[in-house]
Amino acid sequence: MNPPVPPRIAALDGLRGIAILLVVGCHYYAVVPTPAGSAVNDFLRGAAGLGYSGVDLFFVLSGFLIGGVLLDHRTSSRLLPAFYARRLARIIPLYLLLLASFLVGRGIPGLRTTNHGAYFISAVPTWSYFAFMQNITMTWVRDIGPYWLGVTWSLAVEEQFYLVMPFVVRRFSLRQLMGACMTVILLSPLLRLNALYNAHNAFAAMFLLLTRADGLMWGVLCACLVRDDAIKSTLLRHHRLLTAAVAGGAMGFGLLTVRHAGADSPPMLGWGYSLLSAWFAAAVLGVILFPGARATRMLAWRPLAAVGITSYFIYLFHTPIWYVLHWLFFNLPPLHLSWQSGAVTVLAFFTTLAAAGISWRWFEGPLLKLGHRVSYE
After folding, report:
1. Would you list the domain boundaries of the chain?
2. What residues have CB less than 8 Å from 92, skipping those under 6 apart?
């Protein structure tokens, strides 16, 4: 008999859904040319401008969920084999499918040369993608890499986090781990600014584990807080402060959106990412501590939660599907210069959702259940 898969928290899936919609919106509308004076496109570009922060929400969620799993099983003699077997089953197969699509795609002559070859050609070596080192090589050569695989820098950051975190959780007590989290949270923006101003390398500021670890450690800190009875009781008593923090974060998000804060801008690298991660952490705490709250129930809305459940596929494949459809229809990269091209982008979005559902039902879900056959006990 297979061990049961731990129950999902629908509202956390809803947060994942928001995270992936932010990322997709950013890629679809904030980074492609649009006709001047188009009210619809101008609105979409402005609204999606801060969508790259969806990656930070993913980091906080990953830190919370992975940190919680490690804390709950930290004394198990099977912690390492069970943890890595489950991560392998969840991450590697779909990632290898993406890499296979990349190798196939760059062998298609018309597709290979679209957008001046930027989908498949760059100074970033292909081998680094198989070693989850692309974020490091991107920093070394100062190149985002082939666009087909551009989003995978954050996956490399998370994989490096997974390698380190089990040993940290085993080594530290709960209070020591909280102190370590706060130390990293404070150091990360300083490291980002050092990379930007002293090393003059914005790629290092944006793509390395240590410079982006604050989001992950905010998540781990949240996992610690809800497992400390005294702190949890304090948070429950002061729920209005938590509500105010979430509301204030929403206002800050709106302000950064209006100001069109760029992903590599000094304000974002200095304090922007830190404040956004703190806001996302407050939202995660609100979901966990107040499951009956109206906002938590709204996040658990089934269509949004379904998008969150399939967000890994959507994250990896939304740009390749988008590129291929625009190439098939127009023999061009995605350019929102007409209503037809906008319609193809909408088609790409729903095609991605459908493919993600199929992948979850017939590929990812069964593999996840297989991974959970490796028990922590």
Report:
1. 10-317+327-337+360-371
2. none
